[in-house]
Write a structure and sequence with these properties.
mainly alpha, 2 domains, 38% helix, globular
Length: 148
């Protein structure tokens, strides 16, 4: 017999109704991306659409709270707690030089080709050879440096 789910979290704060339809649209896009066929793609390539949707949803919530000041602190904290946005990514966006960061994994030096370096998408386009097409192998980003 399946386990019955009961919601123990409190009701969403005031103002959630105004953005709920947009968050539902992101949830539908996420389901579609998860159910999309992965044939002919590398393992990391199949995750790129999911990461892009997660990034745009987090960016939407970040801009609502910090740029437009359209939602309350209580609603913002509740959205982060419930997993509607990536709190680590938003924390980096608030720091200088990371305003356009695509994902937190791109600034970690552990998984990179050269020890102690960052992802290729963090290199400003002016510092690359002309005509060089860059694309992150982790998330598919084509350049998220603040100088790009």
């Amino acid at each position: 017999m399946p386990k019955i789910r009961t919601s123990r979290t409190k009701k969403p704060p005031e103002g959630f109704e105004e953005i709920e339809s947009i968050l539902d649209d992101y949830a539908k896009k996420m389901r579609d991306a998860e159910n999309e066929s992965h044939e002919g793609k590398r393992r990391t390539e199949s995750l790129w659409p999911i990461m892009r949707i997660s990034h745009t949803r987090s960016r939407y919530i970040y801009e609502l709270y910090y740029k437009r000041e359209a939602i309350s602190k209580e609603l913002y904290d509740w959205l982060l707690k419930e997993g509607y946005a990536d709190a680590g990514l938003i924390a980096k966006w608030k720091k200088m030089g990371y305003e356009k960061l695509c994902c937190v994994r791109c600034i970690q030096s552990q998984d990179m080709n050269y020890q102690g370096s960052t992802c290729i998408c963090r290199v400003p386009k002016a510092d690359l050879k002309s005509g060089t097409v860059i694309q992150c192998s982790h998330c598919g980003c084509r350049g998220c440096s603040s100088d790009s």
